Write a sequence for this structure.
């Protein structure tokens, strides 16, 4: 049984140019990236050339913040329009998975939870339909309650997907977020089953795998149990205040690369099952 491909979220490198990030990721002997969908930084052609020059795959795209459940129609439409542009970008980049999630930092509804959950459902359905027309697949990322007010568990994500009935939509589960929200993260992986299309890894303190208390061996067993064959995407962040500012000081990049190397080594040593 082969090991999972390994990648990293590029946003964790902060404002470094993509060429610099790609060189570092290649030097760490990772297989690819989840590329930040900041469309002001690069075109699909530019990003594709940079990553290909370093023999890196683009496994997935992660969005910048776009509020697709806001009760203000103008705000909501701006979010949906951003995702349409992100889909065009993905289509030009070789059709990686496109991640979607609630607005990071908005942890309560503006109106009511019921209304905004319905707005999320409608907007996600629209985005999924547009993705289908481009032969693209989406994953809805499950975040914790301290980052968004919507979709905190794999079970809630399944409800969203089942309601949209979009065959081109799956689930992204993240070990760090599951550590906060799921009573049994390994069982959440099994419950997602064939709908789990992407998996993020960082330990319970969002540091390297092995530096916290997450039972990654149980996660790996669950991934094998459901036949998951996608990549493992590392989303560790350097220590210090403000987790949404990845590069905090002149030591942050060293910490990040240390975490990535440790996580890489753990997964390469522990993902083969007898």
């Amino acid at each position: 049984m082969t090991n999972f491909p390994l990648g990293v979220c590029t946003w964790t490198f902060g404002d470094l140019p993509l060429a610099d990030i790609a060189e570092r990721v290649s030097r760490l002997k990772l297989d690819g990236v989840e590329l930040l969908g900041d469309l002001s930084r690069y075109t699909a052609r530019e990003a594709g050339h940079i990553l290909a020059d370093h023999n890196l795959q683009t496994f997935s795209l992660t969005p910048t913040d776009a509020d697709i459940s806001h009760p203000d129609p103008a705000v909501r439409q701006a979010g949906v329009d951003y995702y349409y542009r992100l889909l065009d970008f993905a289509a030009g980049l070789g059709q990686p998975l496109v991640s979607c999630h609630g607005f990071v930092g908005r942890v309560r509804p503006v109106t009511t939870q019921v209304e905004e959950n319905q707005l999320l459902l409608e907007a996600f359905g629209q985005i999924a339909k547009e993705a289908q027309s481009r032969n693209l697949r989406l994953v809805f990322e499950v975040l914790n309650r301290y980052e968004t007010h919507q979709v905190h568990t794999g079970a809630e994500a399944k409800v969203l997907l089942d309601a949209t009935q979009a065959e081109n939509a799956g689930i992204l589960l993240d070990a760090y977020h599951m550590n906060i929200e799921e009573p049994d993260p390994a069982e959440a992986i099994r419950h997602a089953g064939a709908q789990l299309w992407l998996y993020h890894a960082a330990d319970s303190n969002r540091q390297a795998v092995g530096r916290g208390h997450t039972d990654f061996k149980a996660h790996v067993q669950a991934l094998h149990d459901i036949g998951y064959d996608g990549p493992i995407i590392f989303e560790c962040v350097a220590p210090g205040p403000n987790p949404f500012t990845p590069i905090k000081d002149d030591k942050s990049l060293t910490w990040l690369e240390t975490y990535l190397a440790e996580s890489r080594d753990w997964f390469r040593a522990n993902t083969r099952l007898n």
Residues 203 and 251 are 20 Å apart (CA to CA).
